[in-house]
Write a structure and sequence with these properties.
Layout: H1 12-19, E1 25-27, H2 28-33, H3 38-44, E2 52-55, E3 58-60, H4 68-79, E4 106-108, H5 109-115, E5 130-135, E6 146-151, E7 158-160, E8 163-165, H6 168-176, H7 182-194, H8 200-209, H9 216-243, E9 250-256, E10 262-270, E11 275-279, H10 288-304, E12 308-312, H11 314-319, H12 321-334, E13 345-348
Parallel strand pairs: 5-6, 11-12
Antiparallel strand pairs: 1-3, 2-3, 4-5, 7-8, 9-10, 9-13, 10-11
Protein name: DUF559 domain-containing protein
Organism: Streptomyces adustus
Amino acid sequence: MNHNTPLPPLSPRTVRRLSEAHRRVMTAHQLRAHGVSAAEANEQCRARGPWQQLLPGVFLLRPGPPTSEERLHAVLMYAARESARPAVPAQPGADEPHRPHYADAMITGLAALTLHGFAGTPPLPSLEQLDVLVPRLRRLRSAGCARIVRTADLPVPDQVTGLPVAPVPRALADAVAEIADAGAVHRLLTEAVRGGHCEPAAVVRELNQAGLLGRAHVVDAVDSLLAERRAIAEGRLYRMVRAYGLPDPVWNVDLRLPGGPHLGGLDAYWPEQAVAVELDTRAPRQDEDALWSEYARKREHLERLGITVVHVAPKRLRDAMEEQAAVVRTALMASRDREPAAHVVVLPR
């Protein structure tokens, strides 16, 4: 066989049919299923040819710069487990677009946050590299616009515009790992909470698991995040009392025994009914168990004095405010049937 003999060109019909495949991005494996050999694919990618190779084994079946959507599909095709890739992409029906399946791969980092709707992240076309999350043991290297991020515990992806995308807390952790600017980290974490994308506890948990809480600028941003979380939760607690017609409590107080020790701070307290509300704003740090023990000790001490303590999680205030108001109202009404509480001194906190 003469290896210098040029390959016969693909027929115009074959090129047109392949170029009309879903999003015009295909792997070498998929092309082989269409009868296109690796040599033929490389021939189509020659200078001024109709195709181009975006990543190793991943081809764009048209000339010109790839769109953001094509780049996202390309990095997922590059990173997805080979055995799970469809040999031939299914064609979309009249009513339902094709949604390819990418096993063991998902978009993460800044690209994922942009897909989740963050306003403060760069637009997809401006990202030179797209982070893709894969299992730690995959034999895969970063290449071209695909940056490989590994994890021992692959999360269940969210589906965003038909793409597998890492949940916001994981995507945040992967983005923060690449950012050295404290202001940028703070802006990302703040938008995650203010925008309602996720709870701070989930963010801190991912940052902790990623080993990022040893970086000073990340710790500073987390401290601001937790302060932001408490402020938001306090605002919701105020709205709950007003919206559901609860009696006005005294806000943000310390309790003490007359001439005795400090009993602890409370977010809201109804002195006549001896009912207290405490926001549970713990973060999942390494001292979580010790902090919970402190919560429990304070609650037990107050309840021995006849004071009912209602712990309220910020997430419950956000998602089930009416239910939380009913819990507080029940505690206030039940005070009529209890023995009078011990006398305590109420001081502003």
